[in-house]
Amino acid sequence: MATGLGSISLESPPANKISPSGWVAGRDGHDGKSLASSPEISVQAKKAGRRAPVHLTWEDLSVTAASESKTSSTAILAGVTGFARPGEVLAIMGPSGCGKTTLLDTLAGRLTQSMNRSGIILVNGQKQTLAYGTSAYVTQEDVLMTTLTVQEAIYYSAQLQLPDCMSGIQKRRRAEKVMVEMGLKDAMNTIIGGRSSKGVSGGQRRRVSICIEILTRPKLLFLDEPTSGLDSAASYHVMNIIVNQARRHCGTVIISIHQPSSEVFELFDNLCLLCSGTTVYFGPTSLTAQFFAANGFPCPQMRNPCDHFLRTINKDFDMNKNYVNKQNTKEAIDILTNSYNSSNIYQDVLSQVAQIRSMAGDLLKKGERAGFITQCLVLTRRSSVNMWRDLGYYRLRLLVYIIICLSIGTLFFDIGSDYGSIQARCSMLSYISGYLTFMAIGGFPSFVEDLKIFKRERLNGHYSAAAFTISNSISSLPFLLLISVVPAASSYYLTGLQTNPQHFAFFALIIYSSVIIVEGLMMIVAAVVPDFLMGIITGAGIQGWMILASGFFRLPRDMPKTLWVYPAYYIAFQRYATQGLYKNEFIGLTFPGSTGGTTITGIEIVRDIWQMQAGYSKWVDLLILLGMGILYRLLFWGVIRFGEGLIVRKPMPVKQKQNHIMEMSSLKIIEITG
């Protein structure tokens, strides 16, 4: 075998026939040009009612990230070129930090706008956005609803992703089929589990994540570390299913994988081997070992080829010379990179990219999913189940609320109607209003988990942001009513406030409205600060500021005009809650004055002592609170919609200098001889 770097001659393995173009014949006997690349296949797919296959190419793709000082940038990908074709599986491999996930995110349109990128990404030879139903992405982290069973998680997802034209029975059968294919039949009724409950194993969670994204049989599937957490047998089983589905349904599959077993590696059609953001090798997996051997890095016998490839190019632990030929890793990487860039394999890549790019491919059409009403109903039902089963969402808070309100009731028991009871009433009402709303931060971890699930499902197009906002709001209302009315009733009647049912109903409505507002506020905080500790601190700070501006700790006329009156006093929902509670309790009552023989009316207490707005009804305060509750939910919807805009979803812009790809592809290609 020749070891020259300019052109290499590789002996082809007997199991694979090398086509005249130098590309390895596929396992189905066709040459490197996928069966789906021909126009006839697209026509047949259209006639059969199936979505057209997807050809994906990327040329001279570079991604940089700004440093913390923002004076320089770090290159994550540097001039990467490649392609993925229908019916084939492309594996992206490399050491940790080489840019595997970044390349996957870039191809899937998931880079944030803080990343600088250049190059060309084409789908079926055209610049177009990946639409729902044509692509799916399985993330490296398994973000699942921990309170659901495996069957529930997949079936709820099927109801959301599959169109309304499919019956419930058909959707359930589709869900059961993918569960059986992924070996989850015995775990169907097992809780997924999470931080507070034990459930399925890590490998089973991984398979649930994959099941959810292959329900729609997407034509383009991205998987980030799909075998993480799986043993070797499960890894092979899962990957074999994915590969077979890709070939059966003419799908295009791109995966990033760290260190597959030799059996899993043999399932892949093509390999993209990265190191420090550059391409070390892109080509048929069957030629990878020959490429390394031709450049002086043969794979030792009885060793997993993937282990050999990664060990050769991993410079993180480059303390000793290369274990094969005593060269350091940097030299080995330079040799392999230079050899690849000057080889006929690279020329074949350019030729394939140019050929696919010149195809007059089909524009991707958006797939069908459940209608908006169905989305709202399914999400509401799923969210209600999650809220009921999650101990930290509402049940634990209900217990704490009852204990605290019973404590308040005993502390202010039978408060009386003397002059001293005026201050006691005000303190008790302000504390209940402030505490019950402030403790909404207890549900913040659950809010963060909900938003993680929303982000994953929303990026894959399962449902709209509006459907999520509406369903989350509706499903929370019964639970918020429960944790508002039950604790409040215990303290209300123990303290001896006005026993008229209308007064208690208004008292409960004020508390209920306030809790709704704070839930919306904490959801906004969770969307902006998706970190448990920082989010709780932020939410507590905002609520503490609003409590200070409520008019209880400092009378309105004594507050500094700047900041505290304008705008704090007018935008703090605690002001309207306290004002409504005071009007509800005091107006209509008369108390003895501070000196003998005098009296003071409730309206005087509200207007003169506490300096509150008494010119309008208490019901106006309630309406203001209800309006704030709606406003906060609309703000939450706006925040998550704005967050979607920070993800790059547009086609990659074309740079003029990219024309050299087309020019290089016209060069004479050196044959790989057998």
TrEMBL record:
CDD domains for this protein: ABCG_EPDR
Residues that span the membrane, as ranges: 398-416, 428-448, 468-494, 506-526, 532-553, 619-640
Pfam families: ABC2_membrane, ABC2_membrane_7, ABC_tran
Location relative to the cell: Membrane
Matches recorded under InterPro entries: AAA+_ATPase, ABC2_TM, ABC_transporter-like_ATP-bd, ABC_transporter-like_CS, ABCG_dom, P-loop_NTPase, Plant_ABCG
Membrane topology: Multi-pass membrane protein
Stated name of the protein: ABC transporter G family member 11
Source organism phylogeny: Eukaryota, Viridiplantae, Streptophyta, Embryophyta, Tracheophyta
